[in-house]
Amino acid sequence: MNPAPEIVMVGTSPDTQGGVAAVIGAYRDAGLFERWGIAYVPTNCPGGAVRKAACAFDSAIKFVALLLRGGGRIVHVQTSSYASFWRKSVFIALAFLFRRAVVVSLHGGGFREFYADTCGPLGKWWVRTVIGKTACFIVLTEAWQRWILSVVPGVPVRIIPNLCPDPARSSIPAGAFDDAARVLFLGRLEEEKGFHDLLLAVACVREQVPGIRLVCGGMGDDNQVRRWIDEAGVIDIVELRGWVSGAAKQACFDGATLLVLPSHVENLPMVIIEAMAAGLPVVASKVGGIPDVIAHGLEGLLVAPGDVAGLADALACLLRDASLRERMAWNARRTYENRYSPRRVVPQLEAVYLELGAIPQLSCAEEGQT
Known about the structure:
alpha/beta, Rossmann fold, six-stranded parallel sheet, 15 helices, 12 strands, 46% helix, 14% strand
């Protein structure tokens, strides 16, 4: 029988769509799972309600079996809010019952609203209990650290940003500073992500930048999306590619002039870090942890959420100024290398594991790393 793993990580299935799955994949690609012998337990999977329920039940059984074998000195839970948090709560409660050290990484931008608006007294008590009993509570930005400490003062909160695999560029995409006008949007095609605002803004920008095209990668309500596009009058300049990943996603970055993400609510979007890694300037809304990543005028431009006119002005400003785009593109790439690359982020998480007594099963030297 294989030795029980010292670290058990709990989170969404790597086969699902979204930022958390991308983070898990990035950690795996960086060698974290191999180096620490991490066992991964997915709490959900793609499919209907019956399949999801079966997946959660099977995962709970697998999780308990790992704990009974003595595994999981550290249980590292990747969660966001609403259903994700309640689903992970089952595993967190089991880890507490078995007296394991629990590390929680918080993703998603809606946790504050989830806590304030949808949790009753009992739900709020459980959220505070989870936060208060964790060995380490990991957030992505300083803003979220301040909020967690306002809910449970004195809890050990660590800021560790999401990481993104390095595409190992020696240059930035030509689209960032040529005369093209390819605006890239990657995310859910819904109001919360500012997609409707973006369509209205693009309709305004096309008068100033006739060659503009909006490339969209993501899923949404097809009928609503097409109605929005038709009402905005931009059907001839919008390209819907559906969900993109892997090489198709990288091709989107390679062909883009800039990335836009005018969300109404966010934490620290993976797509922004991916764009910075690819060497693209960013236009985004000033919400959540985005201002901690993008400094207005350096790596990109920030606008107020829901400000269609401001969004249109920011897009037009960048699309008409190639030298500004090139400068921001290089700044974005440099910020990625200094703050969000695997060589910067992975050691921060490994430091948490070491502090809690875990022992790596494979050294960097054994992996052939320097």
